[in-house]
Structures
1.
Amino acid sequence: MTRFTVNNQPVEYRMDPRTPLLWALRDASNLTGTKYGCGTGDCGACAVDVDGGLRLACQETIGALEGTFVTTIEGLSKDRGHPVQQALLATNVVQCGYCIPGIVMAASVLLRSNRNPSEDDIKGAIPNICRCGIYPRLIGAITEAGRSARGDAALPQEPEPQVETPAVE
């Protein structure tokens, strides 16, 4: 049995200790925000926070995580209120969304240690592959999230949908 904390809840997995964290989260804990992308640690879709550092859940065994604290996208914020989530929504960065949980986790780990990252800092901290090609907008959104986290600026609100009313003659 392997014991550690996931999203502030103690868990005990009765699985082979060699089981990748990704499958324990998805199959045993029903935390499906952590995505399977490549299985080789190259794409970042399975990124989670382990004791404050970025880890790829497809490459970590549950046995190696005994006693640690794991945070998944579900545990980052119940209401999508984390500055990174707010910035991605406010700036319309998200396209298909498959890679977004891993990107949000990578950016949140970055901003915890560096709330004023440079473009190079952001590029170095976000190892994720996004097939939609959101990278230029992503850098701007993470910069905005850093400003918000520092209290320098509020994130823009999502625009209200405009409803046209037909002219009546």
Note: Residues 86 and 164 are 27 Å apart (CA to CA).
2.
Amino acid sequence: MTPYITIRKAPGNWTVRAGGAVLGESSNALELTEGDYPSVIYFPREDIAMAFLDESDKTSHCPHKGDARYFSIVTKSKTLADAVWSYEDPKEDVARIKDHLAFYTSDELTVEQL
């Protein structure tokens, strides 16, 4: 791994909720730390209810991780646009995040350790 990014198994169990619904729970989440940024929890895709997610047109590029694609979360009351991202083909140094999803937290979207 590059010294700039560290990835480790996130300790304990984690949950992600949006619009009052639990989107997923995992005991296999990863914690990615990049430079001085706050750590981000990446959930295995198989632990997330993908029926709540719609792929969006947004993409981005990180020189350390590669190209990300985004998803919006559809709740009962609204759509949280581009609230989820995934590196489908990450760079070799961060290959562990392949098939994982990360979430932008907000008042309407929480990622919590149980």
Note: The mean pLDDT is 95.
3.
Amino acid sequence: MLIVHHTPSPNCQALFESVLAGATAPEIEGVRVVRRAALSATASDVLEADGLLLGTPANLGYMSGALKHFFDQVYYPCLDATRGRPFGFYVHGGNDVTGAVRAIESITTGLGWRRAAPPVTVTGEPDKADVQACWELGAALAAGLAD
């Protein structure tokens, strides 16, 4: 499983760490979790992954430029080879994440990826329920890929 994230703030970092903890929970066996910063992730990373989990802040009503760059780099090389690949995502924003969610859903629909879990959307400082939802997102995606 590939986790592609952009974590420029403590709030995004908390959500990322929770997703990672869920994805690597000891009770989930047989899943190798690879994490890449959005600016470092490559088409090869995506092609080698059986599933993906994406994380981004909402900046100016859109996903981060780093995640958009990731999509720009992998779109055509991965277009046919990754159709049907399961994915999930989380978005953190100061007050609105609608545009970021819409953009991610549009691009992943174009790629033909299959959303395996509802997105986790968080505005403001993440509370205990938000962090738990991210843990569950990571665990659900990893469990879906387990042997």
Note: The mean pLDDT is 97.
